[in-house]
Amino acid sequence: MTEEPTITTIAQHAGVSIASVSRVLNGLPTKAETERKVMSAARELGYVPNSAARSLKSRRSNQIGFAMADIGNPVYLAMIREIQPIFKAAGYRLVLHSTDADTADEIDVLRGLGERYIDGLIMIPLRLTGEHLTMFAAARAPIVVIGSVPEDAPVDNVRTDSRAGVRLAVEHLHGLGRRRIGFVNGPLDTVPGAARSAAYAEALAALGLPYDPGLTQVGDFYRAEGARAAARLLDRVPDLDALLCANDLIAFGALDVLRRAGRRVPQDVAVAGMDDTDLATLAWPPLTSVSLGSAERGRAAAELLLDKLENTRRAPRVVTVEPRLVVRASTDPSRIPGEEAP
Amino acid sequence: MTEEPTITTIAQHAGVSIASVSRVLNGLPTKAETERKVMSAARELGYVPNSAARSLKSRRSNQIGFAMADIGNPVYLAMIREIQPIFKAAGYRLVLHSTDADTADEIDVLRGLGERYIDGLIMIPLRLTGEHLTMFAAARAPIVVIGSVPEDAPVDNVRTDSRAGVRLAVEHLHGLGRRRIGFVNGPLDTVPGAARSAAYAEALAALGLPYDPGLTQVGDFYRAEGARAAARLLDRVPDLDALLCANDLIAFGALDVLRRAGRRVPQDVAVAGMDDTDLATLAWPPLTSVSLGSAERGRAAAELLLDKLENTRRAPRVVTVEPRLVVRASTDPSRIPGEEAP
DNA sequence: TTGTATGCGTTATCAC
DNA sequence: GTGATAACGCATACAA
């Protein structure tokens, strides 16, 4: 019992060859008698196939990787919730990589594809460098990138139209009569940071509002720094009447600051986030947010990867998820819970 | 470039034997000239070692598993946030298992230990069956269980004194002058459900309060069902003046219901949760919660497992994390943010 | 220091 | 149907 049983052990106990053991274990046609002997020996010895040996032979690990910046962000969590069961049902295990938004780390993960410990990878690079693209091209296993990627990149791609998303939010705030619409963004050298920055300027222009650089503050994508950035903005633009945040976490930080500053949300300052995480309905007031379809993107990515694993030679595909504005009380006072008409 | 390079390929290109290649790659003493040739060939060919072959030889996968009921619960997220970097730094990858609180699934994971695709496992069983204990005893790789486990189980164990935690909360509510203290719990056949149920009764008794079965409602551990259970409770006990919830998610559901019912928190009903998740500070009002040290438990589990991997023969250890009451506005009106004295 | 040869546990291809 | 036997890619004991 203390020795790790292998097919050789089973073969000895059952008095057959290892080939027969392997056949029985893999459901290939065998005489009933042989099958019985093998199965009972296997059960008795507590045999479990060794995955390393199996992988070496089969050239498949039955694992897929998921690489994101930080497991602490609920957006990624929403994706994992979709991805995990899909792969589990398909017989794959999920290997997690939290890269801390570090490019070198992401490249490491891509290099890891060559080790063949995963059969495929879903990745969300926060910054997309030439090195990423080189590795994509050289990769020996299928990759799905969530987030925009150049047209000719040899990877499947799930994207969301964050430009349209930002526009939805800005138009909504404008429609509420707000004219001093601030913007708290994450780093401009990140894929989402850059896209949302451009989209913000564009949306203002489309509405005939002037673009005022003083209305933007840049921090990172987390609550604490979001709070600091919002505080800076509030300090410099006292007559701010609306605030768009590049993600929900930033918006939560902004809500903290506005509350401490005694500004009423939404009456004084309307606040909108992006990602529409679970937490939006928990915040006070509940947060208006642009859904970028995290769950859908996760599901799409998983399905693309699964398909590609079975259909290796097909051309790269792009799936786009449409953003959707979810209006809650942080911009619309009539939606404050508990204050509806009975 | 299209053929997967192996040490054999490198050996050919460098004009040396595969043994030399292996030595160079593993930093064993070699002539400088040989080393140079091998390294340059390896780089040129884009060689990456095959992890299956390496695992087969070394009998180590450099992966560790983390099995929890549901990746959607922020408690587990808090743990992963601690666990992941610790193992990453130690050269291990993290394989995730979301078992849906399904015992059969958990047993599968334990059986998977035999496949040797992970070198160790951190597990949080929601229910602990005899089958679990059998598998623990038979396991061929170290296991750390988060959550209580019998004394003689051959696994490391990280626990929290949830009994003391419940008592802290009940005493706090009692100290606020509340006497009708309801309890919304998760399933009684789960480890935490059973423990918290007993602890609740005990704490009441210690305070000389009568135990009224009507004051308890059982649902599951999620927000939606937490809301329904709280609604049932409110319906049957109109004079409820305090509510202890078995975890934060349940408490969030309860807050939703109380708000819709027009009950002021904490003035009419004081609400406390357990786990002290990140989300507690996001809720409105911010949630008083019993911290069960999720981060500490995650860290402790990771460190125990890492230690056991290097020190295979040592006896099982138990680490206990003390609960701590974190008082916020959902029980203490003086702490409502934005209403402090300036 | 280097090369040859063997084994890790499987699967798969042969003859029998 | 079944049993030898050869890979899979790597690490290493041993011989040179």
TrEMBL record, chains A, B:
GO molecular function: DNA-binding transcription factor activity; transcription cis-regulatory region binding
InterPro entries found in the cross-reference section: HTH_LacI, LacI/GalR-like_sensor, Lambda_DNA-bd_dom_sf, Peripla_BP_I
Superkingdom to which the source organism belongs: Bacteria
CDD domains tied to this protein: HTH_LacI (cd01392), PBP1_LacI_sugar_binding-like (cd06267)
Keyword Flavoprotein annotated: no
Keywords for the protein's UniProt record, in alphabetical order: DNA-binding, Transcription, Transcription regulation
Domain HTH lacI-type: 5-58
One Pfam short name: LacI
Name of this chain's protein: LacI family transcriptional regulator
Originating species: Sphaerisporangium album
